[in-house]
Amino acid sequence: MSQTPAASLQDIVGHAKEYGFVFPSSEIYDGLQAVYDYGQNGVELKNNLKAAWWKAMTQLHDNIVGIDAAIFMHPLTWKASGHVDGFNDPMIDNKDSKKRYRADQLLEGKAEQYEAEGQPEKAQALLAEMGRLLSAEDLNGVRELIIAENIKCPVSGTTNWTEVRQFNLMFSTQVGSVAEESNLIYLRPETAQGIFVNFLNVQKSGRMKVPFGIAQIGKAFRNEIVARQFTFRMREFEQMEMQFFIRPGTEMEWYEKWKEARMKFHKAIGLPAEKLKFHDHEKLAHYANAAVDIEFQFPFGFREMEGIHSRTDFDLRNHQELSKKKQQYFDSDLDENGKPYGNYIPYVLETSVGADRLFLAAFCNAYTVETVGEGEAQKERTYLKLHPALAPFKAAVLPLVKKDGLAEKAEGIANALKSSFRTVYDDGAAIGKRYTRQDLIGTPFCIAVDYQTMEDDTVTIRHRDSMEQERVAISELKEKIGYQVAIERILEAI
């Protein structure tokens, strides 16, 4: 048995559509760029990932609770957060191809090229210079750096670039029944602000003591000018964020703790260590004093999957100033001098992972093509090597044939298991083809019902990854499979 080279993004996209994981949105109308729908299997995988994240945050930590804030928020929220004035991407156009690119991504691509050529020092120097220019808002300097590095448009092959300009990424809309009376509001570009404006509501109603966290899963919207790479960068996406409120001065300690905790989570759901790495930010966001990405090796290279940021007291302080409502916490714990810490605006440590990017990482990592058999019997086998707790279906029950009572027996087994975990019954085509169907959607266990089942109430369990089979009593199925497909297996590994 041997594994073939890594799959291309085209392979991933094709498999995702063919087997009900991800479809282009509004495809009958030729689709909408950078918008996707999750199919019947995709929504199950995504929901399982969200459930694992939610439980890892709220179930494993006594001091983290969840909320679900509205998408629409008062427009001053985005003034206080800095998004109205500073939520921009530096864009540059090629005059010959008429294509638009993010200037920072062009430079990052050049740095990746240097890395691949064995010139890491040159790559780091380029990223450092880019960070300096962007921090200084020197857009002309960014353009000159692109030209100096001889970065060409992938379409035209020329360096005929326009000036670099900033584009705000927020979608705006109107609220109100009459246009003249309406007010401008925004679709939220992040879920974090819904947590910040509810900081005191949660703290007081839950009698929470610092340090404590608030978790949320929700949709966010960004008018990405350059949206690409399947579900990696979309205009409508889902975030899983946790804001951890801490005493000022302790942020670096918590920063390191959450870096370690989040990396553990990604390994626990089955992402291999060699495909994960930390990447410190060259240019810090306006709210941060430290920031790092957890990157995953997608088919198009290492890219950000999760961000961990020390946001200081930027958000709560700005909301306090603009709303004129105090966002302070009274800390009765004693300092080194034996006095209460008293009132302060908490600092915040943020973990923010894209549910869609996590889905794509899990899917890319799971997609497996290997050669099985020998000689003339050799053939390729494709399957999704998903963690059993994440698979859309946990088990498939397959009668060997549809006659002699085997089908009825198998249906009875499937119905008995459905209350414990997602189970499918399938009696169409030869059993080998049915095994293949389940492999292609990542079902970890196939239960074959044969003539021996009718005699001794045992069945054969086929394991997806190894294709090994074992004989098990029907009475043991619920416990045996249920143990291996439970989210608890992920939580235990964190």
Automatic annotation (TrEMBL):
GO terms for molecular function: glycine-tRNA ligase activity. It is an enzyme of class 6 (ligase). Its main location: cytoplasm. ATP binds at residues 222-224, 232-237, 354-357. Residues 124-392 form the Aminoacyl-transfer RNA synthetases class-II family profile domain. Pfam families: HGTP_anticodon, tRNA-synt_2b. Homodimer. This is Glycine--tRNA ligase. It comes from Dyadobacter sandarakinus.
